[in-house]
Each structure stands twice: as C-alpha cells, then as structure tokens.
From TrEMBL:
InterPro entries: CEMIP/CEMIP2, CEMIP_beta-hel_dom, G8_domain, ILEI/PANDER_dom, Pectin_lyase_fold/virulence, TMEM2_PANDER-like. Keywords: Cell membrane, Glycoprotein, Lectin, Membrane, Repeat, Transmembrane, Transmembrane helix. The keyword Cell membrane applies. The chain crosses the membrane at residues 79-102. Its main location: membrane. Its EC number is 3.2.1.35. The lineage of its organism: Eukaryota, Metazoa, Chordata, Craniata, Vertebrata. One of its GO terms (cellular component) is plasma membrane. Residues 1-71 are annotated as: Disordered. This is hyaluronoglucosaminidase. It catalyses: Random hydrolysis of (1->4)-linkages between N-acetyl-beta-D-glucosamine and D-glucuronate residues in hyaluronate.
Amino acid sequence: MQDTDARGSSPAFLRPQNGSSHRSSGYVAGRIAPLRPPPPSQSHAAAEFTSARQEARTRLPSLPVDQHRRQAEAARHKNTLICFAISSLSLFVALGIFLGIASKYAPDENCPDQNPRLKNWSPGKDPEKRVFIKKGDLFRLNSDATVHSIVIQDGGLLVFGDDKEGSKNITLRTRFILIKDGGMLHVGAEKCRYKSKATIILYGKSNEGADVPEFGKKFIGVGPEGTLELHGHQKLSWTLLSKTMYFSGLAYGHYTFKRNFSRGLNVRVIDQDTAEILEVLKFDTHEFAEESLKLQNLLKNGSPGRIVAIAVGDSAAKNLLEETRVTIQNLLGSKFVRGLSYRQAWAFVGVIGGGNSSCNESVRNYENHSTGGKALAQKEFFTVDGQKFVVRAYSEWNDGVPISGFQVEAVGGVILNLLDDVSSWAPGDRIVVASTDYSMYQTEEFTLLPCPECTKHQVKVKENPQFPHVGEIIDGVDMRAEVGVLTRNILIEGETENTCYREKECQFFNYDTFGGHIKIFKNFTSVHLSYVELKQMGQQQIGSYPVHFHLCGDVDEKGGYSFKTYLEGLSIHHCFSRCVTVHGTNGLLIKDTIGYDTLGHCFFTEDGIEQRNTFFHNLGLVTKPGTLLPTDRNSSMCIGIRDKVYGSYVPVPATDCMAVSTFWISHPNNHLINNAAAGSQDAGIWYLFHRVATGDSHSLGIETKSELTPLGIFYNNRVHSNFKAGLFIDKGVKTTNASVDDPREYLCLDNNAR
C-alpha cells in the first residue's frame, strides 16, 4: 500500500539500514513512507533568530531587502523552468530525429528480403547449373539468373530482393523449382507485398530430359514441409462496365467512305456531340448551278456547331456560284474556296459558325492527270462523354482517276467507365473485357494508356473496340460486361516454342501447349499466392495445371493450418490446361482470381470428394475445349481421341463429351459466391455428382454420398455467353473402365448417372 502526505508528495521506498545505524522513530523495514524535508541546521536556525530580532527592531527598513530577495528567487525559478523547457525540447527533437533515421534504415521484420541473415546470391546464367539450396543457405536473389534447376530443402531459403521504390526487375529462368523438407521460396509477404517486378520463366520442351518423379517437367513443385509464399502488389482484380463501350469507341461506330468519279462537292454533316453522321450529300456544282444554291441553303439553315466535311470529286468549280463560295467562307471559315479551280483537289473540315480558327483545309493542283498526292483535311473533336475523335476528308487525282473520301474514328485511346475504383491499375497493364453477346469470342483485350483526365472510375485503352460491350442494366437484367486486369508484378510464365511439335496435340492445336505448372502435395508447411500472374501455364497431360493442389486433404484449420490456404487475385491467362485444379483437397479459398483463355474445365474439382472449398468473386471467360477428359472435348476431339474406348467404339459427342465448363463442381458441399462465368464453349457452371470417388481418390474408398449432401452456399453468381447452358445441375460421369458391356471411355458423360 502506498501513502502520500497531505501535499501529495510522491512516495519513496525506505530501505532497511545495515548494522546498528540509527533508525528514525516509527520506521518499519520495507515500508513506503512520504518524503520529508531534512531538519534545519543549527547555523540556519541561529541566522533565522538573529534576523527575527533585527526585523523586530527595524521592521520598516527591512522591507525592501526582503522584497528584493523574493524577486531574485522568482527570477531564478523562472530561469530554471526556461532551461528545463529548452533541454526537454532539445531532447525530444534529438530523439525524434534518431527514431526517424532508425526507422528509415531498420529492417522491416514483415519483409522477407530484409532478413539480416540473408546473403546476396548471383548464380549467373548457366543453363547446366543444378542448384541445391539447403540447411544454412539463406539467399537473396538480386539479379537475373538462368540455371538448369533449383531444389530448396532442409531449411534452405530463397528470397527475391526488393526495394522501397520497386525499382528492381529480376528474371529467373529455370527448368524447375522443387521446394520440400523445410525449403522455402518467398517473393514478398502478405504484410509486405513485393513492389518490384519479379519473373520466373519455366523453360524446356516435353521431349528434353527426364521427368522428376511425381512432378514431371517445367514446374514449381511444393512437397511435404515446403513453403511457397508469393505476394504481389495488391490491385482490384475485376469489375463491371458502368457505361456501354461502343464498337470502335463511338456510339455510332466509325465511318469510312471512299469513292471514285463522284463529281462535285461531297459533303458530310456530323453531330459534334456524338460523332454521328447526320447527312450524306453530293452537290454537282460542276454541272448545275442550282446544286450550288442547295449547298448554300444547307449551310445557312444548319445548326451552329455542326461539323461539316467537304471533299471534291473530279471537279466542282465550274458552276460553284460566287455567293455560295462567300457563304462557305463566312460560315465555315475557308480560305481556299474562293479560288477553287477546275479539277483542283480540295478537302475541308470545319464547324458551322466556327470561323477560320475551327477549320482545316488543303488544296492540290491538277497537272498531267494527277494532283501528286492527297489534299487531306482533318480536325479533332470531343463527344459529350469526353471521347476524342477525328474527322478526315481527302481529295486527289491519281493517274487520271478522281478519288474522294471521309473518315470518322476515335483517336488517342478509348475511355472506359467502370463500376469500381480502378486507381490501382496502371498504364501498360493489359485488361480483358468480356463479351456481352451470345459468342464468347467477342471478348477483347486492351492495353491501358496514361489518362490524366480520367477519374478513378475510368481508364483509357489504346486499341479501338471491335465489338460493342454493354454497360447497362436493361429491363432489370444486369447486362454489364466484366472487366479484369491481367497484369501483375509477379509473373510465372511457361516458355513455349513458336509452333506445335507434339504430334498428339498438333491434331487439334497449331501452337505449343507445353507450358509450366505449379503442383502442391500434401503436408506442405505453407502455401499462399496473391496477386500473381500465370501465363502460358499448364500442359495437355493429366496432372499438369497452372495451379494444382494434389491430394492435399484439409488445407484449412481442420487440417492443422493456422492460416487458411488461399489463392487470391491471381491472373491465369492464355494457359493450356485448366486454371485451378482442386484435387482431393478440402477447405481451399480461391478468391478474386481470373481465368481467361484456357483449355478444358477452368475452376475444376476433380475426383468428386472435394469439399468445403470456397470460390469467391472469381471471373472465368473464354473457356475452350481441351483433350484431357471426354468432358473437356469438342466434337472433333471426341471422335478423334479413341485410345481409351473399348474396341471400335466411336464416341457420340453430344452424349459422351462436349461439357467443358468454367466452373466444374463435382461435389455439392462447396461454396460459389459472387463469381462470373462469362463465356465457355459449353457451360458456365456445371454441378455433377459422382456416385463414387474417381481418379486417384478411387482407391481411398471414400464414399461421396453426393445425393445425400446439402448444397453449399450458391449466391449471386452470374453466367452469360456460354454456348450450351449457363447453369447445369444434372448428369454425372461414367465411373467404370471401358469394357465390352460398356465401351465408352472412363469419365465420359453419363446420362444415366443422376
């Protein structure tokens, strides 16, 4: 218990004194007692007594001296406070500077590349070098490298170097990376995302070298006790259009016209707000004076601000009246029309009432059946939506042939209006805009341009759209196109050959389909991938997919993982075998991931035993046929691949195959929330339920009990642009091998399995 005196003095601990030293009355060893001032000394008491007697004898004369003493005491007290304040301020300033410098240079414990135990590692470029990173090897890769292969094991660690400015650009080329037995590969971390550009290129052909057991070739593999942590710069994965994106970037499309021997003045009147062509006219002012009067009336009655484009075809001067020339000069601002002569090429673009400052024109003289090139006039304008467009007019004689024409098209990029804040997208990023037609092949890719005039809900693209993409809710139906960004600052890419070289695949594809793949096995230590781009990944062979969780069992808390295993914000595009394969794995979270332009089922649960997996806000589009399973195949593949049927049986495409789906869900106890299936050769989402476990899980003897299991969460998913159906909850697959009794291939569609 702490005691304080009446004045609130701070308590002090009085320690017991040693030996026979004097103890003050009332002392208790170890007790807390208030501080008291020491008793006055004898000399000080005598001085006070003498002073008191003097004060009694001469009270009045002593007052000024006493007052002076008090003033001096006050001054000393004030100076002490000032000194204390200055000292304290100096201390805090110095401490702040020290802490600021320390924080600037102190390593961030959340950033794997700032581990002080790491050693800089530069293996160089040697395609024959086989690297083993083992116990005691803690490496930071800071430069480009090419090696044959990398095995990280026994506590070995490989980290990609980074900096605060994100200025590094590191490319690692290798045939494979195998992480196992305590090995770790880190590129960034969830709490310290990678800022620079990191690229892992997996190279090699299918017929080069031997397979690594269980993994094959050209892979990043995670075995038992392996760690793979890849975390790129966080950005919005995908959103929706908020306004329709028009064909060519203009609401009424682009306009092109070219004609030979169109004598007179060819005229186009264009709406300045929309770039719509309002009038398509020709006035033969060479032959008829009344045509000149018609043109004059058109201009006088035209709305101010309307765009007028004029091009001479053949000749227009003979009966072009002077008053018409003056009207063109005054209303449109032309300087050349007054002097227009026989067969002279003239092109003009201007604005009614705009004067000379708002027009552009060109003339070329006719000589020896030619004008020596085009008279070209062009001027740029903006629609009310801010879209820049150009109007061109041209006129020429070429080897005795008069040519005239017009163009109206968007220039300087096309602005897209989007539902969400896309300020995390950057110039140079590639984006994909989904089809809003019946055909998925109206999906388009674009490159982002700098756009200082854009809001945070807008981007500008370099290419002009070839198809319209709806950005509206029409009659209560949400028709808005999905828009996803494909670019990430961590890229894993399979290096491919220029042409197809594997005979089996070359029957159906005219390009190399032997990409890289990521394969994760059971009992890994930690696997989390976020905001990573995977390009040219997957192979047209069983087990080699862009991302493949292979018989991993429970990968969430139920499996003993303190942090749920997840894939977030991945961009998987232009790949050769699926997007994400969940195989004998439960509790995986797949979130904000894009699967675009891939072969075979995209988001794929394989054996019919996969449960508790969550597919949240993923986008799949342009899911094309592949060769792996009968359900992946189109008609020609179905008939052409017969090595696993019995005897001479010829598969029936409509009933055996043709079921490729963006989401292939083989057990009901999985969750689909806020996903978009925006274009597949057959189906958007297909639920089918296996009677028994299939594939590698068949030998485990696990009962699926699909027909007795409640459906997991299915909420707010959208499907469109799928050839066969948006959503199927039907059928099953054949779970017996081909035989004389049933010659169909194992895992083909089975209409009887319901």
